[in-house]
Amino acid sequence: MIKRLARAALPADTEALARFLIGKIVVRDLPEGLVSGRIVETEAYVVGDAAGHARPGPTARNRSLFLERGHAYVYLAYGVSWMLNVSSETAGVGAGVLIRALEPLQGVAIMQENRGVERLRDLARGPGRLAMALRIDRALDGLDLCRPGPLWLAHDGHKAGAIGESVRIGITREAERALRFYVRGNPYVSGGRALNP
To answer: What is the pTM of this model?
Structure first.
């Protein structure tokens, strides 16, 4: 039985939220049915982070990062892949957590159709893949993930197990910071072996 995450349960600190979200669930309500996956990998983009989209201050593109923690920030990376982030601080403070990988739970056939692949491991391993699997795009930007709607965060009492940390993937600024968190040994985590000790 899954329950919607209450905003009060979310830490008002980006790094803490990135750790907290490991083991929680992303739920997408689609016309064909519910699709969900357990979060197994996140990256924190903290206040003032040179690699974070909030660094220049609020803009039309990034304004959702400045909403109270628990809102969706969805952007298009390299003109190809949508990325799902969760705003992570108090209102007016820009920062976020990138959801990097999910372990599929519900609606696997829908995810397979959305992704055009059969292999379970490849459905939502990586932020672009998970957005495609859950049909997430810019239309969901700014959505409150702690309220009823087409996309929300949930929990089911699951304990995530050992959480590893590493440098973030695919960035050049502040690339040495260990702000990526993942479930150790989980096959749905993205990145190579060097990043998943």
So the answer is: 0.94
Cβ atoms of 125 and 101 within 8 Å: the answer is yes
Q: Strand 96-106 vs strand 33-45: parallel, antiparallel, or unpaired?
A: antiparallel
Looking at the chain, the whole-number percentage of residues with pLDDT higher than 70 is 97
Q: Say which CATH topology domain 3-195 has.
A: 3-methyladenine DNA Glycosylase; Chain A (3.10.300)
Nearest Cα residue to 44 out of 144, 181, 160: 181
Query: Is residue 91 within 8 Å of residue 142, measured between CB atoms?
Result: no
**pLDDT > 90 fraction of the chain, expressed in percent and rounded:** 78
Cα(33)–Cα(134) distance, integer angstroms: 11
Domain ranges of the chain: 3-195
